[in-house]
Amino acid sequence: MLTITDLSVNYGAVQALSSVSIEVPKGEVTAVIGANGAGKSTLMRTLSGLVKPGSGGATVGGVTITGRKPEDIVRLGVSLVPEGRSTIPELTVEENLRLGGLWRDKAERNSTHAQVFDLFPVLAQRRKMRADTLSGGERQQLAIGRALMSDPRVLLLDEPSLGLAPLIVTQILELVSRLARESDLAVLLVEQNAVTALRVATTGVVLNLGKVVMVGSGAEIASDEQLRHAYLGY
Amino acid sequence: MTTFIDYLLGGLGSGAIIALMALALVLIWRSTRVVNFAQVGQAMFTTFIALSIQTWTGSWYIALIGALAAGAVLGVIVQYLVLRPVKRNDTSGAIIATFGVLIALQAAAGMIWPGGSQAFPQPFNNSGIEFAGRVWPISIYDFVVIGITALLVLGLTLLFTKTSLGLSMRAAAFNPEVARLSGVRVSRVLTFGWALAGSVGAVAGVLVAPVSTISPNSFDILLVFAFTAAVIGGLDSLIGAISIGVFAGLVISLVSGYSDSGNAPVVALLLLALNLILKPEGIFSHHKARSV
């Protein structure tokens, strides 16, 4: 579904990504893992249009997305949940969700809204409350819910585990992987927490200093001791 | 006691006008983190346009609508010509640029409408209402001013809380990045905000002109009061701008009544200083602190 080909990104003289190629099929979770500074967030920000690529690019269902504006990329079916539970604290739960699909046809938007409430019942209970009254886990659910409101074909998740209790991380990631299977969604998950990410991912991609150093099944990567020591630090 | 109440009543109309101008400042600040000092210049310019329309058509209503439209257009022009070229994140550069716009607008108005101060015709009776055996210091025109202000505030509240455009505007102001990722065309929304603020300021100008006069510099003092109200209200709060704006009108009326109207700006600046010392983030602000 999402095809990344030879993608390079430079910040001034620093090459943050060099010739990265990744295939993200639909119905599966693909995890990109690597240490701090490996280029994971840069990859996500480039795919969502916040950062311009140097060379190479990415397509979704054959349509090029890289180089476009974020507001156009989300309309092409690629939705990012940025790092750090990016909800808008001053808005209510309901408003944060509505924001995710304002441009869509009202009837379609309302049906997605109902699906999101089915998926995250706690958001339905708290719909009138301001987002900053939610717990960390609830806010992450809201951030994912907002991203789903655009009815994406590709969901980009940037470090969803950050600052959350392990049990909640597991619940959220299992829900995401179920969502991928049931809604035929292509999920690209970026994580520093490799163990958790590889548990739900069909395919794992190891990123180091902006380069892809290994691609394999989640289990393969998790069991490669040398790789773990070299790149993942455990 | 009756004098005190009289002074308070007499301050309501000017308070409403200060509130509108403060509201225009807050609308821009919320979305761009820039205090638009050109706002009164824009309002002065559109009030001159309104005066021309009034002279030509004889209708105050057409003049008011003309000012609304001209205010929106001028707001967009100011954003495109001045603030877009200023580098993003360079807010002090942008603020200085708004001063430049103010001076340019005042110079241009002096050339287009020469002859110094001009009277703006009274659209409604502006003498005190007679009621219960005495004349009260509030006129039909004051009620029109308060009514129009209330309608605008109601309209803006509905826009911000009930419509998709309003939600986009709030999201773009609070977190432009998340707004863009959600599909909001933030730069368009910002331009709409400039148009909206321009219109609100233009209404304030048309409303204040009949009770003062209109000249290229006649609204400068309004900027002082509106800026004070906006800052004390917290700069990003619409409710703050409105309530402190009205409050400022009352204080000015009391100060002018008990001492001299020349003391009002000094009192405004004292209140501003006091606010910045005691509660620098403003009374209605969402944010915890603001560096001064």
UniProtKB/TrEMBL annotation, chain A:
Keyword line: Amino-acid transport, ATP-binding, Nucleotide-binding, Transport
A Pfam family that the UniProt record links to this protein: ABC_tran
One annotated GO biological process: L-amino acid transport
Domain ABC transporter: 2-234
Transport found in the keyword field: yes
Gene3D superfamilies xrefs: P-loop containing nucleotide triphosphate hydrolases (3.40.50.300)
MF-aspect GO terms: ATP binding; ATP hydrolysis activity; branched-chain amino acid transmembrane transporter activity
SMART domains listed in its UniProt record: AAA (SM00382)
Family: Belongs to the ABC transporter superfamily.
This protein's name: Unannotated protein
Source species of the chain: freshwater metagenome
TrEMBL record, chain B:
TM region positions: 6-27, 34-53, 59-82, 94-115, 135-160, 189-209, 221-254, 261-278
Coiled-coil annotated spans: none
Gene Ontology cellular component annotations, sorted alphabetically: plasma membrane
Membrane topology qualifier: Multi-pass membrane protein
Predominant subcellular localization, coarse grouping: membrane
UniProtKB keywords: Amino-acid transport, Cell membrane, Membrane, Transmembrane, Transmembrane helix, Transport
Gene Ontology annotations of biological process type: amino acid transport
Compartmental location: Cell membrane
GO MF term set: transmembrane transporter activity
InterPro entries from the UniProt entry: ABC_transp_permease (IPR001851), BCAA_transport_permease (IPR052157)
Cross-referenced PANTHER family: ABC TRANSPORTER PERMEASE PROTEIN, BRANCHED-CHAIN AMINO ACID TRANSPORT SYSTEM PERMEASE PROTEIN LIVH
Family: Belongs to the binding-protein-dependent transport system permease family. LivHM subfamily.
Protein name as annotated: Unannotated protein
